[in-house]
Amino acid sequence: MRKFYRLLTASLLVVTFVACSTTDPVAPSVRVRKNAKNLTAEEKADFVNAVLKLKETPSPYDPKLNYYDQFVYWHLQAFYCVPGDNQHEMYPAHQRPSFLPWHRVYLDMFETALKQVSGKDIALPYWDWTDPASTAAVFSDDLLGGDGDPSQEYAVTTGPFRKDAWIVRVTDVRFFKSVFIEEKTDPHDVQHLVRGFGKFKDSTVTLPSVAELNNTLSISKYDSAPWNSSVDTAVSFRNSLEGWRHTAGDTCNDGFMDVKWTPTKRSEMHNVVHLWTGGIIKLNGKVIGGNMTTDTSPNDPAFWLHHANIDRIWSAWMQRHGRVYEPVTGGPKGSNLNDVMMPWGMRTDGKNTPNAVLDGSVFNVEYDVLP
């Protein structure tokens, strides 16, 4: 459903001390992303309060949106494409080699926003979904709240993002399609969070295991042609981590990406975490999907903790296999090594291409522990 290397300064032997003047630039502080289960009460409160503050702050990019919903809208736009374009003119956020660097920039943009509204250098916590204790911490009442309440159509009713406290305004009215959803779906277009942990219509899904994570980390090749969701995961760490299985690539239809599924296990790793959190639920004769199963998945703040873990896994992979990226050229638009990834062209610091962000320390971020 992609990273940052730990700084090496602690291992360097300092042999000379050089006095600095008061005019010397101050190095930016390093944000340490911690496992959610290891957060202090203050760290939890700082993160929650900053996220809530984003909902109350106008977006500096679009006056029609608040600052939090700006991030939701960017993610929704990431699924747009142009019919007839065989390279699917779209934000290169998914089903592409740029899945990992695109989201790395996205996480930095979000952490920057948290700092702007809070005045604190808040680091995103991560959700290690292979660890039940981390999952329990993420969905505790003092962090993200719990599962949806079946008696209230699976609305989230606990924690700071509960119904009536957290308003969902940007929705994906088309919902995603697959062979598993035969009915015409009702997008359940409500203004509160919906979660259905592990629910998949008449069956269940489970979170990725340590063994599945280790298998993905063992894949030595970053990515391979045809550079989309159909690439064999044996030769694509990116696709193994993103989670596409048994697809026929992607096509552009009526401005949206319509993935052609085969009737087999469709998703693992990143994808299945989205599915596990939101759920696809039969309810009163219709099928509804939780927020994390739609293109507007950042409506659920669980998105950020999930993707911080994806980025952490990318960092761990590079520690094993090197800071490499493919393709250099010849891939889909926005996905080559030095392509600017839309919509991050607005960044003036140049940190908007895969090449510019392969070293995660460019964002002054590190993880407490790599898997």
List the helices and strands and how they pair.
Elements: E1 31-33, H1 41-55, H2 67-77, H3 99-118, H4 132-138, E2 148-149, E3 155-156, E4 199-200, E5 203-204, H5 210-217, H6 237-242, E6 247-253, E7 256-261, H7 269-278, E8 280-283, E9 286-289, H8 302-321, E10 365-367
Helix pairs in contact: 1-3, 3-8, 7-8
How would you describe this protein?
With 371 residues, the protein is α+β, with helices and mostly antiparallel strands. The chain has one domain (9-367): di-copper center containing domain from catechol oxidase (Orthogonal Bundle). Helices cover 26% and strands 9% of the residues. It has helices spanning 41-55, 67-77, 99-118, 132-138, 210-217, 237-242, 269-278, 302-321; strands at residues 31-33, 148-149, 155-156, 199-200, 203-204, 247-253, 256-261, 280-283, 286-289, 365-367. A hairpin with a 2-residue loop joins strand 6 (247-253) and strand 7. Helix 3 packs across helix 8 (302-321). The longest helix has 20 residues, at 99-118. It is globular. The model is unreliable at 1-26, 174-186 and 253-264 (pLDDT under 50).
What descriptive keywords fit this protein?
8 helices; two-stranded parallel sheet; disordered N terminus; 371 residues; 10 strands; di-copper center containing domain from catechol oxidase
Structure summary:
With 371 residues, this protein is an alpha+beta fold.
Shape-level CATH architecture: Orthogonal Bundle
Number of domains: 1
Name the helix and strand elements from N-terminus to C-terminus, one letter apiece: EHHHHEEEEHHEEHEEHE
**Helical content class:** 25-40%
Task: Give me the CATH fold name.
Answer: di-copper center containing domain from catechol oxidase
Low-pLDDT residue spans? 1-26, 174-186, 253-264
Give me the side-by-side strand order of the main sheet: 1-10
Principal-axes shape call: globular
Kindly report the name of the CATH homologous superfamily.
Answer: Di-copper center containing domain from catechol oxidase
